[in-house]
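Readers of this paper often ask what the protein records in our data store actually look like. Such a record has a labelled line for the sequence and another for the backbone structure tokens. Nothing more is needed to write down the fold, since each code stands for a local backbone conformation. The remainder of this section carries one protein's record, kept here as part of the documentation.
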Amino acid sequence: MEGFFQFINDNIEMIYIVVLMIFVGIELISHVPAVLHTPLMSGANAIHGVVIIGAILAMLRMDPHNYTGLAIGFLAVVLGTLNVVGGFVVTDRMLEMFKTQK
């Protein structure tokens, strides 16, 4: 427990920045018009490809006997992939609305 408090004490500035980013993000997203919300979210979901690549690279450098780290990396790859696919599905559905009927 002492190590946890030491970590917080050493990284208090980073924690403040993350909390500030959360509030700024919520404020920014709440002021996005409804017309732009779908393309913004589909683009943000597609950016999760970076998360997939990062998780794969982290898993490649991890000790093969570190099952907890490998499980968390695998979970990051699976959830990142679901988010990327969801972003493309939402984008495809949005673009279908603008196609002309035959």
Q: What stands out?
A: Helices lie at 2-10, 12-30, 34-46, 49-60, 67-96. The chain has two domains: 1-31, 37-102. The chain is about 80% helix and 0% strand.
